[in-house]
Design goal:
The structure holds two protein chains of two kinds. By secondary structure, chain A is of the alpha/beta class. Chain A is about 40% helix and about 30% strand. Chain B has one domain (about 5-430). Chain B is globular and about 70 Å long. The chains are: A alpha/beta, B alpha/beta.
Chain lengths: ~250, ~450
Amino acid sequence: MLKIKNLSAKVDGKTILKGINLEVKPGEVHAIMGPNGSGKSTLASVIAGHEDYEVIKGSMSYQGEDLSEMDPESRSHKGIFLSFQYPVEIPGVSVTNFVKTAINASRKAQGFDDMPANEMLKKIREKADLFDIDSRFLSRSLNEGFSGGEKKRNEIFQMAMIEPKLAVLDETDSGLDIDALKVVANGVNKFRNKDNAIIVITHYQRLLEYIVPDFVHVIFEGKTVKSGSKELAMDLESKGYDWIKEKN
Amino acid sequence: MKFQEKLLYSHIAFEELFDVSNPIHEKRLKALKVFEKKGFPSRKDEAWKYTSLNSLINRDYALFPKKETPIELKKVKKFFLYEIDTYKIIFIDGVYSPFLSDTTHDGLDVCLMSAALSKFKYRKIIERYFGNISDNKDSLTALNTSYTREGAYIYVPKNVVAEKPIEIIHFSTGKEQAIWLHPRNLIVLDTNSQAQIIERHQSLKSHEVVTNSVTEIFTNKDALLDYYKIQNDLTSSSLIDNTYISQEKNSTASVHTFSLGGKIVRNNLNFFHTGERINSTLKGITILDGDQHVDHYTLVKHSQPNCESFQEYKGIFSEKSKGVFNGKIFVESIAQKTNAFQQSNNLLLDDLATVNTKPQLEIFADDVKCSHGCTIGQLDNDALFYLRSRGVPKKEAKALLTYAFANNILDGVQLPIIKKRIKSLISKKLGVNLGFDL
């Protein structure tokens, strides 16, 4: 589904990624771990197509298609979703209206009509229940005045609504208390199936207790330095990142 | 002959045409002298540093409105708030249109300046209020006064709430290739009265029209005024709006200015306080493209203690458009406990778009709270990426962010129909259909 080979990327003239290798197949959950500043969020932005980031080496393909020249909205229409570490506040546009806009933009790009209003409403209700989201929350302005936890929950709610094929969750656990973490993880697990794939980016092993990965990759100084099974996350938790730093 | 000379020379004919015996005859003549002496403002005047009228005044205009050019209602319906019931004072090329209007004398007066100037029963009000708050030393105001004949006259008596909003609309048809209009409005809200007013200037076809309008508004004790200026004209039309508001104690006046189109638009918006506990609100959204130019020149003169003023203007400029915000707050030494706020935030979406923003605070009292701020920025790339990564195409994503930037100005709009109208004008202006009512 996603193939990244020896990828290097820069932003503002600074090379952040210096050799990323990653292959994700349908049905798999991959965890990407690494210390602060190692390039995890940059990788997420590059996969989703942030135009400030320039790919300078290597290749990145999704469902056999080269991603390097594709704009972010087209990636989204083809099923790539990024849950942001810092979601943006949009005053005056409600959560519901934004989700409608996003879904219908995607349908339009694929040549479908807008989703009928009743179908949309039903889906919104169903997914809101799944994430324990109050209907008043849905009529609030997108992310405006949301707590850190509400923002993350809203990101995952949007993911459930949009139903992507490849979801990249960038530090979705940060800012969540344990109860919110369980709700979010539960939602992600319900979303998980044999046809879609998830990349979980996190600092801590904690989230991986709830969203159990098939593979764990460690990024350090812009490179994938280690890949393994979920036990690798446990090793990291007990030994700390210094263990990786020393080895490199 | 230069247009300025024509204005002076034509005045005798103008007065002869429309009764010399008018009670404001003397005021007209005096005003003409002021204009004769000062002429049109130029960029040498500090107040006109960023806005030049040269492109407007170096050509000829028709000055005398002829008889009414009829227009079909269905052609102009969209410019009315047709979804709700309103009073209407409608002019076509400067001439009153009884067919399109809906005036009243039942409980309040919503009628014509020409009637108020000629009928004896209005004389007291005219003598008391006409020309008493407008700046008769200002050349453009003086020019308007010297040619005053027609406009809206609104008088809301003591304790009366105008039950319907009042629409004042000036259409220009393009029958004259170039026309200069001088609408003059007088609005008096007597003690404890209320009114909502919507003002609009609209060309129906591309032609040179310059409207030099003067509106005098008096809100007496405890009165409440809610005023909306919708400026979404064609790019061949210019507007110089001179609005003067005099507020008595405990009165509240709010003016929202939505500047979404026009060639050159200058909004001189002036507030004067004559009593305590007055509240003044000035808010605006400006969205321009092409070569459009909008200049907001505001003045709030705090002359009494315990009053508040609140100014917030948001501007969005693309292509080669130009914006100006000059906000003057004047606090006299007696005006202790003044609370004055002013904010001008601007988005520049293209390299050639410009905005000049200048706060001007002159404070002579020592126990006041006055604050001001201005910002100029661009759309946030990360925010744009956020929306695009959810599948929203670039153009729509930009529009959503732009709308989000301007959105809070609409919070203070009391009339839902205005809010709806402005939202749809904004999405049209931004060239997107967002698929939902914003």
